[in-house]
Amino acid sequence: MIIPYLARPYVNIYVPNTNSVPIWLSDNVQLFVKRLFMKQVVPQPIYVSETIDYMKVTKIPQISLMGMSNCGKSSLINSLIHNVPLEHPLQKHMSNAKMLNMPTYAPVSDKPGRTRHLFTFNLDNSLSIVDLPGYGFAKGQFKTLNTWNKLIEKYLSRATNLKRILSLVDSRKGITELDIELWEMLKSYKIPFHVIFTKVDMLTSVELHNLNGTAIELLRGYSSCVFNYLNCTSSKNMLGILELKCTIAHLVHEERCKNNILNN
């Protein structure tokens, strides 16, 4: 097993012991991070499998978060777009119905599989972030036709400006067969993905080193579509959130360069 040196909350999959600073962590990118993630969160329609056909095609770069139920997707989104760890303070005092009518932050639930909706959070006209329903209800979920599967397939067929999937893995549970099924599906769709470990504050240093080593060995088999860095995060103490923002901001900046949109 490869045991990478993890002095920072990210590891290069191919050169785990490198001390070089990634291009996405440059000073210019960090300046762009401040501008990008300070933009207003624009509410978007919420979709389920029965209404996903009405989803409009976005014209701005889009990333989507996928992971097992209760892996920390919603908390991570709130950390990214609001700098709020875990749940939004207002959520404690709101019913589910009210939360669904105020989609400027991601609703957090302790019950796996409770969130079956597709939430979209646009940062003005610069970036679209999609919170997809969690998986983990049954083995082979990516291969069988069910409500969850239909929603995901319809979304992927319509997300023409999808630039990257953030594949979230609960570090306490490690990489599961369902996570690998997801990577295989994304590989077949030729969709770029980036693996993010969540809740790493719950692991010891040795456990995290071992987990990263296992992930590196697996991910090298997806070189055609996997991002070459593995990021570690904790929404509880905001560990690794800045670095993750930088990977996203660099992606958005590259898209702007391609389209000659550099004014904001």
UniProtKB/TrEMBL annotation:
Keywords: GTP-binding, Magnesium, Metal-binding, Nucleotide-binding. PROSITE patterns: G_ENGB. Gene3D superfamilies: P-loop containing nucleotide triphosphate hydrolases (3.40.50.300). InterPro entries: G_ENGB_dom, GTP-bd, P-loop_NTPase. The keyword Metal-binding applies. This is GTP-binding protein. Residues 59-254 form the EngB-type G domain. GO terms for molecular function: GTP binding; metal ion binding. SUPFAM superfamilies: P-loop containing nucleoside triphosphate hydrolases.
